[in-house]
């Protein structure tokens, strides 16, 4: 489900590190990674000694999805590691996107998995449940700072993967549109209530005659500027269930609780922004392109999206934009995610695989992505140590420092929770089926309550692995 996003991040990682990348959408780097990157915080591992003969380089394999061009650029990163390391050599196993999971499953059946690799978030705990992922808890023993707990994948309480980046959801807004409407900007620290958000969106929604959605003569069939977009790409809907006092799953992951009045109401409120309030465009929920086709396209005043959008598309807009916390239905909350790097349990070289993934995940090796705004750091100290936060945020690629710190950095530390795939398996199938069942909700052919009631039996089966 997050494949396209994960691919984009991987491509942009290479773009940030290697000038020769053919990705035409990469953001320009600012400054030198050598002089601007913070000090190394390399964690240690307590993995058992390798069985390789003393003095010989151990060869391990790293799996990756992508096109031949992307594989070429990823190879350049591996070349950097191989040139610097005197006892490990990493070989790239490039697998086409559409065949990635199927290929790994086939390799697992034959006990031929690579030593380590990248995975989609929503497949991690499925692999862990089958005993295919190694315990990686030793990676950060002795380190001065740990990755945020909210981006740690756990199977039966044991860390089996850490996200290589952190990505939170928050609100983007067009300051020029707010100025034209003579409206105060959203506060970076105090979020709007849902009703305030809808009312603001009405004042920012304009028809061809310049009338806003509060005017009795407003023409909802001839809108030229929309007040908002709340992304209905399925995984992002979970945040509204939490905000409305519901949950898709119990906190301990032991039950599926999605068929509840609170969850149904949260989804219906998102649908009604288009169906009832006429402040948002129709979106079918089938594409992960909410920011790109709304606020970044210049026709929407406010839009929910991920932190990665700072560096992937908001850096190209020709207007002044700001960031704020998500509006609140009942509870203030955001969800976080990030593509994981994993070590497969079938490896014969566990210490070396852990060492490489540790190196690959270090912020120094990804500083271009962090500095550009595409990735947020994974280590807690970058959120709590203001000197490190300044190194990350205080640059021209970001909104003003105080605004971004309050709306994103502090928000993440204070109000973020794990997306469901960090603690529940089978989320790939769950989200795909839920997406198909919610289609009629976006068109108004079903209510959210009707859709969830009809889908619940099969969603429960997916949750149980049946």
Model description:
- The protein contains 17 helices and 13 strands.
- With about 475 residues, it is an alpha/beta fold.
- It folds into 2 domains: about 5-165 and about 340-380, D-Maltodextrin-Binding Protein, domain 2 (3-Layer(aba) Sandwich), CATH 3.40.190.10; about 170-335 and about 425-465, 3-Layer(aba) Sandwich (D-Maltodextrin-Binding Protein, domain 2).
- Strands 6, 7, 8, 9, 10, 11 and 13 form a 7-stranded mixed β-sheet that branches. It has a 6-stranded mixed β-sheet with strand order 2-1-3-12-5-4.
- Helix 3 (about 70-85) links the parallel strand 1 (about 60-65) and strand 2 (about 90-95).
- The longest helix is centred in the first third of the chain and has 17 residues, at about 70-85.
Short description:
By secondary structure, this protein is α/β, with parallel strands linked by helices. It has helices at residues 3-17, 33-36, 68-84, 100-109, 124-129, 175-180, 194-204, 238-243, 261-275, 309-312, 350-361, 367-372, 381-384, 386-393, 401-415, 427-443, 448-464, and strands spanning 58-65, 88-95, 116-118, 152-155, 158-163, 167-174, 206-207, 223-229, 300-306, 321-324, 334-337, 340-343, 416-418.
């Amino acid at each position: 489900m997050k494949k396209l996003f994960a691919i984009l991040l991987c491509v942009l990682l290479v773009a940030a590190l290697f000038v020769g990348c053919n990705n035409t959408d990469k953001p320009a780097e600012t400054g030198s990674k050598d002089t601007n990157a913070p000090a190394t915080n390399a964690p240690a591992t307590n993995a058992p000694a390798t069985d390789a003969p003393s003095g010989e380089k151990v060869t391990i394999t790293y799996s990756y999805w992508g096109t031949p061009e992307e594989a070429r650029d990823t190879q350049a990163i591996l070349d950097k590691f191989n040139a610097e390391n005197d006892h490990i050599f990493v070989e790239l196993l490039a697998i086409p996107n559409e065949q990635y999971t199927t290929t790994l499953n086939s390799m697992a059946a034959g006990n031929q998995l690579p030593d380590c690799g990248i995975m989609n978030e929503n497949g991690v705990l499925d692999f862990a449940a089958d005993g295919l992922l190694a315990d990686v808890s030793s990676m950060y023993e002795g380190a001065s700072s740990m990755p945020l707990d909210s981006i740690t994948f756990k199977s039966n309480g044991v860390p089996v993967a850490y996200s290589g980046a952190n990505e939170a959801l928050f609100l983007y807004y067009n300051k020029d549109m707010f100025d034209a409407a003579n409206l105060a900007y959203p506060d970076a620290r105090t979020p709007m209530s849902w009703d305030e958000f809808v009312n603001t969106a009405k004042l920012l929604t304009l028809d061809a005659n310049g009338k806003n959605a509060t005017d009795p003569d407003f023409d909802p069939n001839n809108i030229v500027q929309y007040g908002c977009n709340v992304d209905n790409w399925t995984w992002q809907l979970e945040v509204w269930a939490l905000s409305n006092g519901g949950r898709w799953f119990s906190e301990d992951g032991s039950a599926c609780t999605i068929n509840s009045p609170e969850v149904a109401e949260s989804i219906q409120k998102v649908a009604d922004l288009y169906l009832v309030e006429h402040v948002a465009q129709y979106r079918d929920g089938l594409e992960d392109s909410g920011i790109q086709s709304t606020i970044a396209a210049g026709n929407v005043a406010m839009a929910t999206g991920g932190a990665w959008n700072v560096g992937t598309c908001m850096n190209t807009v020709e207007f002044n934009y700001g960031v704020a916390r998500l509006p609140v239905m009942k509870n203030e909350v955001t969800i976080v995610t990030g593509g994981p790097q994993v070590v497969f349990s079938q490896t014969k070289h566990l210490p070396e695989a852990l060492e490489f993934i540790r190196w690959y995940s270090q912020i120094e090796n990804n500083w271009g992505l962090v500095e550009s705004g595409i990735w947020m750091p994974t280590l807690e100290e970058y959120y709590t140590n203001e000197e490190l936060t300044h190194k990350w945020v205080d640059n021209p690629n970001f909104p003003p420092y105080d605004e971004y710190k309050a709306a994103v950095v502090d928000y993440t530390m204070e109000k973020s929770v794990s997306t469901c795939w960090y603690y529940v398996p089978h989320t790939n199938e769950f989200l795909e089926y839920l997406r198909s069942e919610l289609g009629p909700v976006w068109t108004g052919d079903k209510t959210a309550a009707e859709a969830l009631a009809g889908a619940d039996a099969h969603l429960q089966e997916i949750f149980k692995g049946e």
